[in-house]
Design a protein that fits this description.
alpha+beta; seven-stranded antiparallel beta sheet
Amino acid sequence: MEIRQISVFLENTTGRISEVTKTLARAGINLRAISIADTADFGILRLIVDKTEEAINALNAAGFTTRQTSVAAVEIDDVPGSLAKLMELFQKSEVNIEYLYASLEGKAGKAVVIFKLEDHDKGFKILRENGLTMAERF
């Protein structure tokens, strides 16, 4: 199952992340996972939220540039080595990971790892074939 991720493009200036989080709070949107990648001039804030469409509408109305992306969200045991095993599976299967980040918002004893895969279909097939649990929401 795929998860819809929101990417928000931001100038790398003081207060921009605060403006995003305040906009979402005013709209009653709950964050489930968050990550930022930056350069000297701009950043990409990646979000998983509980109400994707409402979040996009609120962010766009506030003047932010957004984009939706399909990502995989996989539950793994919250113990040492779980991520290493998953990475080895992708390596052996020659599936390239463009980026990843994680959330502990899942079930007790589990972590949720969010992946953007170069070959989305192949990656999902490998996850299913190896019995990994795909998070539909968290």
